[in-house]
């Protein structure tokens, strides 16, 4: 998926969200994450769900038909900011630091 920006991060975050959705024992953490994402991102959470599809299930946005502006102006900066803030939200929700192991970084976007 070299043509898709941030595909490695998106895949890791999607797997994290999938684990929250699939594991009933993690329901309190899922609810806390949903609340934090809503508070921090508001409507901008939609853009994260385009990159991290399983996040939509946590936020209840799977069937959202709302119109969102798809303007590409500053899209890369917005996406970088959203991902950085999402790491902070996960860290706060879980109550532990987030560690990502980046292997073969020379092939990154």
Describe the protein in words.
With 109 residues, the protein is mainly α. It is 60% helix and 0% strand. It has 5 helices and no strands. The protein has helices at residues 7-22, 27-41, 45-51, 53-59, 75-94. Helix 1 packs parallel to helix 4, helix 2 packs antiparallel against helix 5 (75-94) and helix 3 (45-51) crosses helix 4 (53-59).
Q: Give the termini distance in whole angstroms.
A: 10 Å
Query: Helical element count?
Result: 5
The residue fraction in helices comes out at 55-70%
Q: Determine the structural class based on helices, strands and strand pairing.
A: mainly alpha
Shape: globular
Residue share in β-strands? under 5%
Query: What kind of oligomer do you see?
Result: single chain
Please give the radius of gyration in angstroms: 14 Å
* SSE succession: HHHHH
Q: Let me know the average pLDDT.
A: 82
What does the main sheet amount to?
A: none
Question: Low-confidence runs (pLDDT<50, min 5 residues)?
Answer: none
Q: How many strand segments?
A: 0
């Amino acid at each position: 998926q070299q043509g898709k920006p941030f595909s490695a991060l998106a895949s890791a975050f999607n797997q994290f969200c999938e684990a929250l959705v699939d594991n009933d024992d993690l329901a309190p953490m899922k609810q806390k994450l949903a609340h934090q994402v809503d508070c921090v991102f508001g409507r901008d959470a939609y853009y994260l769900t385009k990159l991290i599809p399983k996040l939509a299930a946590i936020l209840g946005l799977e069937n959202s038909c709302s119109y969102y502006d798809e303007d590409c102006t500053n899209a890369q900066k917005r996406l970088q900011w959203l991902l950085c803030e999402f790491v902070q939200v996960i860290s706060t929700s879980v109550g532990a630091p987030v560690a990502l192991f980046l292997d073969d970084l020379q092939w990154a976007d």
